[in-house]
Amino acid sequence: KPIVQTLENHQILAKAAKEKNVLVGVEVHKRLDPFYADARDRARSELGNFQYMYAYMSQPKHQLETFKAWAGKSSDISYYLNSHHIDFSEWTLAGIARPIRVTATSSTGVAKARGMSTEDSITLTVQWQNLDDKSLGCGVYTSSWVAPKSDVHSQQRFFYMGTKGEINVDQAHRGCTVAQDDKPFGSVNPLFMKYTPTNGYFSGQNGYGVRSFEHFIDACKTINDGEKQPDDYNDGSIATVHTTFQGTAILEAGRMSLDADGQPMDLIYEGDDDVDPVEIKPHVF
Fold first, then answer.
1. Contact 131, 98 (CB under 8 A)
2. pLDDT-derived band at 72, boundaries 50, 70, 90
3. Where does residue 113 rank: exposed (0-12), middle (13-18), buried (19+ CB within 10 A)?
4. pLDDT tens track for 82-114
């Protein structure tokens, strides 16, 4: 994730996938997190139109060294981490709302002090438009790779509010903590990956970090066996190249906004009810 970094390249890839009649997917494992999947279904079935969402995702500052080969050169922290919760919004709001404007702001200092020309944290403010009555909602997505070391490697949480209710999800803290001699205190999430072997053997197959790949491979086998067509998976069961245009457009628009000193960027659609953006343009006040 994301599948590519620009809407234009996404469109090219989608066209090629259609011409070759193959399944092309994006690896966004949060869709298989049972907490996120349940939150998505509740939002779609019980919480009404979209009103507001705040999402935060971070990793400790030693990641700057891990990713120094590309950080600030070929990508940034928004593409790397905001992509998760932006995909969650696109998946959750499919057929309910569409993004129409993106404004980006950033924090700087830590990375630049290490000689890296990149943002420390990036916040994307996304204006969403509900499709049925054209009312507006707001999504705020923040990502950072300058957090201190803590009880988890990655802080991940969001708050979602619809017209009929709200949801809080803290992915980083699932109620399981571990304390050991000579090791730092930790909050663990075996739902993502079970790192502890069973009888000496790997036993993390059921974690959603693994199942994300398994799910895609199973779909490919089903298609190759002639039981389904690639388009059958555009129903939200897999993040396909044909159902993730919005996420790519939001991330690219965020980068464009940052590079334009915070100027908002409009996502352009062909029709009032279309959900796939076709272009990104600077907003004119």
1. yes
2. confident
3. exposed
4. 999 999 999 999 999 999 999 999 999 999 999
Mean pLDDT of the chain: 96
Those residues with Cβ within 8 angstroms of residue 188's Cβ, 6 or more apart along the chain or in another chain: 174, 176, 177, 178
Per-residue pLDDT tens for 257-269?
999 999 999 999 9
Assessment of whether the complete model's pTM goes beyond 0.85: yes
Question: Distance between alpha carbon 271 and the CA centroid of its chain, in Å?
Answer: 25
Phi, psi dihedrals of residue 34, rounded to the nearest 5°: -60, -30
Burial status of residue 210 (CB atoms within 10 A of its CB: 0-12, 13-18, 19 or more): middle
Tokens at residue 125, please? 């403010």
Residues forming a β-bridge with 53: 139, 160
DSSP label of 201:
B
Handedness of CA 65, 71, 72, 76 (dihedral sign): negative
| Contact (CB, 8 A) for 150 and 116 | no
The size of the chain, in residues, is 285
- Over residues 219-235, mean pLDDT: 97
> Do residues 158 and 53 lie in contact, with contact meaning Cβ atoms separated by under 8 Å?
yes
d(CA 149, CA 69): 22
74: which strand partners? none
Q: Is 180 exposed, middle or buried (0-12, 13-18, 19+ CB in 10 A)?
A: exposed
End-to-end alpha-carbon separation of the chain, Å? Answer: 32
My answer on whether omega of the bond before 277 falls inside 30° of 0, hence cis, is: no
Give dist(CA 157, CA 36) in Å, integer. 10
Each residue's pLDDT tens digit, 186-226: 999 999 999 999 999 999 999 999 999 999 999 999 999 99
